[in-house]
Write a structure and sequence with these properties.
Four copies of one chain form a homotetramer.
Chain A (H helix, E strand, L loop, with lengths): L8 E6 L15 H16 L6 H4 L2 E12 L8 E8 L6 E10 L5 E13 L9 H7 L7
Antiparallel strand pairs in A: 1-3, 2-5, 3-4, 4-5
Chain lengths: 142, 142, 142, 142
């Protein structure tokens, strides 16, 4: 759960038509793309770049995801993506998300994902200290 | 967890290039599409049709998802999708999945998703009895 | 070809990781999503809403697409989407697109798509006059 | 246009729910994924592997696409993908596609795409002779 008594990152996205499905609502897999936007933008705000590890031969691999669907989003809806770090470790970091309607603030989807720092061979590695320092202000468990 | 001492449905899919990402592996959101293939094919095998509820004004909405990533899949890899029902209730059913390499049998990703039976207004409804009967043989909790 | 001597709509989007593929670049199908953003935002700017026809039982169906790939886009790249109408008819409208690097202005992809106005049964219909009026300022062929 | 008086490759795919959109039909971008399946399977049948160039540091980059939408496909529809080579040159090859309903044979979408052989730096290169030899039987322009 996102802890609102602690800092969290806020960004926004608008639902694309391609993200909907034949039920007339946003396809459930599309929310993983919104989560991805959330953590990329959180990391950008820290001054680190999500692309840094890729340039340097390291990446954040997704290890675990949990998603809870509360209400449907629709085409063209303006969404707010709230992102927070929950458990920054030496080799992994967990992000917590809330997707809410930008106008009403209604929570649509919540979730979290554990990201693991790996090199190009998939070997788990230490997250650089400057990354950890950058993410820490958004980490509610500190 | 998929319970191998009970029946489970098996289908296969091959990784498309569009499902990969710049890390050179399958993008983590793509596995939700493989899960979807698994439950659609499980329901088809029961003789019911996944499209039935849509034709009749009812749908299976995703309520909750859990995914655990163990190893990466790659472009063109032949995958086996194992699907089982875990908890068939009057208004919801939980599916459990394993995505494995079709050749080696290595488990790549596991997960589960709770599906809720809703009408076109999103009102939670009773799953038709014939559906429940059809899914039950794949339900390990019976 | 986009005609720069006439008005065109400008919006922007940033490449998501999910839009890349194992070649390390944006997957070629992702540009259709950027085109879609372009025409949705052009129509929004006219004061009409892309969702109007859906609410009213009418939709814009894609009839024809042409895409030309000039240079690759990469994860996290900030893109500018330029959109223009080229041939507004009573039942169809053609949009023309340029996807350019937001910083350098380098043209990455160009394309056009013909959209046809259809009702829910797929029957081709007349575009409402107020839509045509709204799109016309962006139509270079007028 | 696919030339039926010459050999063409045939494969099949079933529409996934994730490939539909809120118009209740297959999203227009999804057909590019079906085209991709067609050319990957055509190349596989030649005995060459689509992954070969990637393993060797070369790739087929999409240079140009044309798509014509004739009728809508729907969730769960079984599709036949017909693929043919149309113009095999030393550095590029054009594939031609037809997506048809597997049961009725109705043509839903046609298209073509020009693929260019490039190395990892995006430099246009010569297609290996064994690839050209393999594709040639499917090339109607020979």
């Amino acid at each position: 759960m996102l802890d609102k008594s602690n800092p969290f990152h806020v960004t926004s996205t608008r639902v694309r038509f391609a993200e909907t499905d034949a039920m007339g609502i946003v396809h459930h897999a599309s929310y993983l793309l919104y989560f991805e936007i959330g953590r990329v933008e959180l990391i950008r705000q820290t001054g680190a770049s999500y692309t840094d590890p890729e340039a340097s031969g390291y990446s954040l691999a997704v290890g675990d995801i949990r998603i809870r669907y509360i209400a449907s989003a629709h085409f063209d809806q303006q969404l707010t993506v709230r992102t927070q770090a929950a458990n920054t470790r030496s080799r992994s970091v967990t992000f917590v998300y809330e997707i809410v309607d930008a106008t009403t603030g209604q929570i649509l989807v919540t979730g979290n994902s554990k990201l693991i720092y790996v090199d190009h061979n998939g070997t788990v590695s230490h997250i650089p200290e400057r990354w950890i320092e950058a993410i820490r202000p958004f980490d509610t468990s500190e």
